[in-house]
Amino acid sequence: METLDNHGLKAVALGCKYDREWIFKDLTFFVKPREALGIVGPSGSGKTTLAYCLTGIIPKNLKGEVTGGVYVDGKNILELDDKERYKIVNVVLQNYEVQIFGLTVEEDLLFVLDNLELNEKEAEKRLELALECFGLKEYRNYQVNELSGGLRQKLALASTLLMQPKYLVMDDPMANLDWRGIVELRRTLQMLKESGHGLVIMSRRLKGLEPVIDKTIVLGQKLAQQGIPDEAMDESHLTFIKDDPVIKFENVWFKYAKRMVLKGINLSIDRGQCVVLMGPNGSGKTTLAKHINGLLKPSSGRVLVLGKDTKTHGPAQMARHVGFVFQDPDRHITQESVWDEVIFGAKNLGLSYSYAEMALEALGLNHRKNEPPYRLSMGERIRLSIAGILAMNPEILILDEPTTGQDEETLSIISSMLIRMKAEGKTVLVITHDSDFALKIGDRITVIYDGNVVADGQPKRILFDRNLLEEFGLEPPSHLLIQYAKEAS
Amino acid sequence: MPRLDCRSKLIFFFSIMTLTFICKDFWCILILLAIAFATVAIKGASLVSKSLKMILPMIIVAFVVWSLLHNWSLFQYGGTGLDWQLGSFMATRLFTILMISNGFLATVKPGELMKGLSLFGVPYGVVFITGLAFRHIYTVADDYHAIKEALSSRGLEFDKGSLIKRIKNYTFVLTPLLVKSIENAEKLVLAMKLKIFSLDKKRRNGERLGPLDILLMTTSLVMLSIAILHYWVGVI
Predict the structure, then answer these.
(1) Pair (B11, B40) in one structural domain
(2) Residue B104 sits in the same domain as residue B128
(3) Whether residue B103 sits in one domain with residue B38
């Protein structure tokens, strides 16, 4: 066993419970300066609670019963006052939006420096260093709302690091990143390790960060299956009903805020196909999908869905045919019980509730139908949002990033449901960065890059083409990463 | 205008807005309107035409109302009568006020407004909360759009049916919006603690004012003083 001396962030028999329910218990681990510890677990496994315990937020600022202890460089973290504690160990929260206080990049960084009450010379030095290290120099005077999601995340990280905490806990830093973002995050973590920081990185999976992670512990349920199921490698199952395409994009251009987001898209999707849309953040995947249910109208060209021109049909009308499952389930829960939430769409469309019963059953929520939706776990809420769409029995189903923050149980339920829908002749469109999931469920992968379809074909052909992966910043499948690692060694 | 210091911009806009309310001469209002046009035009001709499209219908209504119903109020009927001169003056004044507001929004960024207020000695707590509100307007707006999109994708009509039905449908947006906002507010408080925020931190000093800033501030304040002395005190 490694010895710790007094240097390091150490959890000893750490446990935490809310309302008599244990979130986790008896966790013992440590991380030293220049070391990165990965903590892997699905949503609801207690990663955020653990991050709060490691920084003393629980029980000092938030309620929760903590057993065991957390020690930083030999001192019990609870014996330090807030100011001292957060200067030694700090956390980058998952929701980076709420950690940005300034209206511009510079103002946000100055906010932290002002709180530290540094003299102007030292503050200026730290500001310049942060802008330089995080590549934010050219965005210095940008309004925060003008920045991309990736840059905002970087800003949240940079402003936390201005406090120069010796140990940094990051709660799901990869949640909204594409592959290039993950590679950049890996470089940043490497830089932080080299400059002496001890890191704790919490995530559903650590794919892409393996080279910088020194050790890993697993929270909650069993680990994600790293690799591709055998059936995905066998393309003989890729059969679908071939007739007139159910979705047809004809030279579709779309302009938003002076920027051309879609540039002449031509795409046909057949009935019973499961098409996976891949591409880096901001490439136009969600914009393209929103044209299918009439949420967005093309600036030129047309989109035909089941023969209907979506220019003349609104999203509420298209809802009879197209179901759209959005990313954040909390953004569409409006009802007081699970059952009312599931039938909400069917009720609006005047449909019977027969499919609602089936959807609840298929997604394992039948036993909770009378409970308030906000009492469900995140995984269950995601399933609830899918059930609400399935209750409308749409012919086309669109899922936007269904794997983000998922637990394995939910992922496997979603995969089986998609396979069953395909078998019933329904058409499925999935937007994801997760190449292993794409291989598992997709019949075809369409790569969107800068508003264009740059590759389209069978999953294996697309995801095992190294040049293509590199050129368009796609996440390599786990099989390929293992191969890369073998070649490197 | 973009290179000017936030303090001179604030004084300039405060002065011309106050002047618009004080001045009672048509020609003075026209000069102020020309200045307001110039501030909007700095950001491009497209903004001028966009502003005009938005403002003109209001100006026409104001002109008709002031010209025809100038003897009326909410509580009394004052007979009939036409006053085209008053209608033109009041419509031009409204036009100027709206153009100045557009010019202000186009040339003063929220960050500059906060910095300016802070440098003018407004308490840090007030400036911080106002800045935070500006910052999170975008988050709330994003949430609002996303919720509306999700609900319309589940068959909820926002632009069809009777007014009562539409209002009722909009109430469905409120629950998730409220939940998200409370969630964000809780996280925001936590993030403030993590960044050891305190309201009694020191205030930063502003940069030195340039000659153009001093010229603009002086001119604005002199014009404002003359107008006050002329219209209110009656000495000039």
Answers:
(1) yes
(2) no
(3) yes
* Neighboring chain B residues of A114 at a CB cutoff of 8 Å: 201-202, 204
In a domain, B216, yes or no: no
| Min Cα–Cα distance to chain B from A4, Å | 27
pLDDT of residue B76: 64
Write out residues 94-113 of B within 8 Å (CB-CB) of A.
109-111
Domain count, chain B: 2
Contact A144 B157 (CB under 8 A): no
* Residues of chain B positioned with their CB less than 8 A from the CB of A326: 146, 149-150, 153
What integer pLDDT is reported at residue B203 of this predicted model?
58
Dig out the tokens for B226 from the structure: 């003359």
Integer angstrom CA distances of residue A330 from A49, A385, A394, A407, B146: 20, 9, 22, 17, 11
Are B80 and B141 part of one and the same domain?
A: no
User: What residue has token string 């007979």?
Assistant: B79
Pairing of strands A452-457, A308-309: unpaired
Q: Which of B48, B81, B108 is the last residue of a domain?
A: B108
| C-alpha distance from residue B13 to each of B18, B95, B120 (Å) | 8, 15, 15
Residue A252 has phi, psi (to 5 degrees) of: -90, 125
**Which of A332, A347, A351, A374 should be substituted to probe chain B, the one whose Cβ sees the most B Cβ atoms within 10 Å?**
A332
Q: Are A253 and A263 in contact (CB under 8 A)?
A: yes
Task: Answer yes or no: is B154 within a domain.
Answer: yes
Q: Rounded to 10 degrees, what is the CA torsion of B196, B201, B202, B207?
A: 70
CA A390, chain centre distance (Å): 23
CB B40 within 8 A of CB B103: yes
Q: In what order do the strands lie in the sheet with A396-400?
A: A322-325, A396-400, A427-431, A274-278, A444-449, A452-457
Res B129: pLDDT: 86
Which range marks the domain in which residue B31 is found?
6-108
For chains A and B, CB pairs below 8 A equal 149
Q: Are B103 and B139 part of one and the same domain?
A: no
Contacts of A348 in chain B (CB under 8 A): 154-157
**CA proximity to B193, closest of A81, A253, A78:** A81
CA distance A39 to A202: 5
| Angstrom distance (rounded) from CA A476 to CA B34 | 60
Q: Which candidate from B176, B191, B195 shows the least CB-CB separation from A331?
A: B176
| ipTM, interface predicted TM-score of the complex | 0.81
Which residues of chain B have a CB within 8 Å of the CB of A107?
111, 114
Does B204 touch chain A if contact means CB atoms closer than 8 Å?
yes
- Give the closest-approach CA distance of A187 to chain B in angstroms: 24
**Inter-chain CB proximity B111 and A159 less than 8 Å:** no
Confirm or reject contact between B149 and chain A (CB < 8 A): yes
Tell me: pLDDT of B202 over 60.
no
Task: Count the alpha carbons within 13 Å of B76 in the hemisphere toward its beta carbon.
Answer: 3
Q: Find which of B47, B135, B202 to mutate to test the A interface (most A CBs within 10 Å of its CB).
A: B135
Residues of A in contact with B105 (CB under 8 A): none
Does B213 map to a domain? no
pLDDT at A33: 94
User: Cβ contact (<8 Å) for B154 and A348?
Assistant: yes
pLDDT, position A443? 93
Chain A residue with CA closest to B129: the answer is: A101
For residue A266, the SS3 value is strand
Contact: B201, A115; criterion CB under 8 Å: yes
For residues A92-119, one letter each, b for 16 or more C-beta atoms within 10 angstroms of the residue's C-beta and e for the rest, the string is bbbbbbbbbbbbbbbbbbbbbbbbbebe
Residue B157, token pair as written in the block? 């009509």
Whole-prediction pTM: 0.79
> Residue B220: inside a domain, yes or no?
no
At residue A53, the pLDDT reads 94
Residues B52-66 have a mean pLDDT of 90
Ranges of residues in chain A with a pLDDT under 70 are 1-5, 220-243, 405
